[in-house]
Amino acid sequence: MEEAGAGEAVHGILETFVATLPQRLEALVAAAESTDAEPLQRAAHAFKSAAGTIGAGHLAALLEDMERAARDGDLAGARDKLEHVRGEARAVLDYLRTATKGGQDA
């Protein structure tokens, strides 16, 4: 049985993710330009958590790989994952925009 307001709460979470995804990507790119791995690790971790929360498993896994590489001091390896993360983030964003728009019309 669905709890009262659960659908609206989920919709709100998805809308927030869609609204903040561009900023999360920008933060990740800025952190990747640093010579210190810690900002990249933190940005990947935060983005990973948000992706996991909404069920974007492939994006979360890519971000986990990036986070792990940065944590291990492999800044080049973490940076190498950036284009894969961008591509998957775009796919998730496109899907969510379609899904949330479709949900509002129903």
Description:
With 106 residues, the chain is mainly alpha-helical. The protein has a single domain (6-105), classed as HPT domain (Four Helix Bundle (Hemerythrin (Met), subunit A), Up-down Bundle). Helix content is 84%, strand content 0%. The protein has 5 helices and no strands. Helix 3 runs antiparallel to helix 5 (82-105). The protein starts with 5 loop residues before the first helix and ends with a helix.
Report the span from N to C terminus.
20 Å
CATH superfamily: HPT domain
- Radius of gyration using CA atoms only: 15 Å
Which architecture would the CATH scheme give at its second level?
Up-down Bundle
Number of domains: 1
Query: Could you give a short account of the major beta sheet?
Result: none
Q: CATH topology, which one?
A: Four Helix Bundle (Hemerythrin (Met), subunit A)
Outline the low-pLDDT stretches: none
SS summary, helix count: 5
Mean pLDDT: 90
What oligomeric state best describes the polypeptide chains here?
Answer: single chain
Shape: elongated
Keywords:
Four Helix Bundle (Hemerythrin (Met), subunit A); 106 residues; mainly alpha; 0% strand
Briefly say what this structure is.
This protein is mainly α. The chain is built from 5 helices and no strands.
What is the topology?
Layout: H1 6-32, H2 37-53, H3 57-71, H4 75-80, H5 82-105
